[in-house]
Every structure is written in structure tokens, then in C-alpha cells.
Amino acid sequence: MSILDRSGVRLYYEVYGSGPAVLLTHGFGATSRMWAGQVEALARDHTVVLWDMRGHGQSDSPDTPAAYGEAQTIGDIVALLDHLGFDAAVIGGQSLGGFMSMAVALAYPSRLRGLLLVDTGPGYKSDDKRDDWNAMALRYADAIAKKGLAVFAKASREMRPGEHDNLRGLELAARHALPQYSAQVLEGLPRIKVPTLVIVGERDRLYLGASDYMTEKIPNATKVVLEDAGHAANVDQPEAFDDALRRFLDSHDL
Residue 117 and residue 93: Cα distance in Å, rounded? Predict the structure, then answer.
């Protein structure tokens, strides 16, 4: 069990293989285990780094609201790279993990060799749309607090509540890490210069438009739509996902 202590918050992580680093971040309600289907394909010639965000999996769930959020997650990802001795890596994630990966790309561009965005979006231009998103996040938090595991009965396949040490952590993450407060990431997409792969499941209708938008706005981006896949394309179609990611890494010598 590998742990990084970040000012008293213990972050769980796993490392596989050797070579250039690929660091993958799960989505809200998931854990590092959602990437299990990618480890064998990537670890042949890369160092694969998986981790659990605060409030998720085997990482700590601090009780302080200020311990969660975009800035904290960015700091955790960079601290993992520092801890493992990588100046730069291919960084990617699914859903919330993809949004946070874009935030890292904008805050620390020199730390990226490439970017992977899976079933995710860059946020909203409209304050009204952002308010709607934030209201949804707070409703989710309230539901977790009241109903516990029952909230996840119809969740996307990557969300397995039994993998979390503390459901209170998920509630706090929904309250303080899911909400968005600006269009900074969306507006910054043209500044992302590294090769970028956008993957989306054909059934993930909420993110098909966002995937088109990111592919258009990020200068060196390509998009792959995986058939018969939903919001966790890598879980629904692991072989097709791995093939697309391997082609991307090989074509850009990453």
C-alpha cells in the first residue's frame, strides 16, 4: 500500500511498470480501480500511476471543506509527480478527473507531455449553466448524506461504492470538489499545446458535445468515439480504449 502524505492528508496511489509516466485520475464516485483494464496494456513500456482523490477510495476524507477543491487536486497531482521523481508525464482522467487534468495542464504546462480526456467536459461559459451544475452537485451531496449506498444503485459502471473507505468523504467531495466557480478551464483550452486525446463513449450523450468542443479548441487534439460505451468508456470497452490510447502514445512518441 503506497501513501503520499500531503500536509496530513494521506493519498493512496499505485505504480506499475517502468518508462515514461502516465498518471490517470478517476471520476467522482470512482476510485483508481476503474483503470484496472488499462494497466497491462500501458505498463509494458510506461510507468502507470493511479491514485484515489481526496474523499475517495483509500485516500483520506478530511472533515474540513477547505481541504477539497480544484486547487487541492491540482496540488495533489503535481505532488505525486514530484514524489515519484517525474518532471513531466502524460496526464489524464475521466469525468471530474479529466476536468482536473485540464486544470493541471493550464496551471503547470511544463509538467505535461500529453493529455488524455475521457468522457469529460471543460465546464460552462454561462453562469446559469454553471449554477445548474453546482446545484446538481449539492443535491448529490445531500442524497449521499441521507441515503448512503442507495444513491449509487443506478450509477455509471465505474462507480462502485464498496471500494470507498468513507462515504462521508464522497459527500464532502460532492459539496466542495464537484462545483465550479468560473469558466477558467474552458477559456484556457487554446493554451493547451501538448498532444491531446479526447475519448468519449457513443452513449455518453451529456459529453458528446463537450468532446467536440474540446477537440476544436485544443490545438493538437484528436477525438475517438467508442461504440457501445457510456460515461466510462474505458470500463465499457477496455480493449478498444487501450488500442486508441496506445496508438496515440506511439504516434506522438509519448
Answer: 6
Pairwise CA distance, residues 178 & 121, whole Å: 12
Question: What cell does 175 get?
Answer: 459539496
Task: Work out the number of other CB atoms within 10 angstroms of the CB of residue 29.
Answer: 26
Distance CA 36, CA 136 (A): 29
Task: Please work out, in degrees rounded to the nearest 5, the angle formed at the alpha carbon of residue 221 by the alpha carbons of 105 and 234.
Answer: 85
- How far, rounded to the nearest angstrom, does the alpha carbon of residue 46 sit from its chain's CA centroid? 19
Instruction: Answer for the pair 91, 101: CB distance below 8 angstroms, yes or no.
Output: yes
Q: pLDDT per residue over 200-254, tens digit each?
A: 999 999 999 999 999 999 999 999 999 999 999 999 999 999 999 999 999 999 9
167-180 per-position pLDDT tens digit: 888 999 999 999 99
The residue with cell 460552462 is 124
Q: How far apart are CA 75 and CA 23, in angstroms?
A: 14
CA atoms within 13 A on the CB side of 111: 22
Query: In DSSP terms, which residues pair with 226 in a beta bridge?
Result: 201
**Nearest Cα to Cα of residue 118 among 180, 177, 30, 182:** 30
For residue 239, the model assigns a pLDDT of 97
Sign of CA dihedral 138, 168, 9, 192: negative
* CATH number given to 2-251: 3.40.50.1820
The rounded distance, in Å, linking the Cα atoms of 1 and 50 is 12
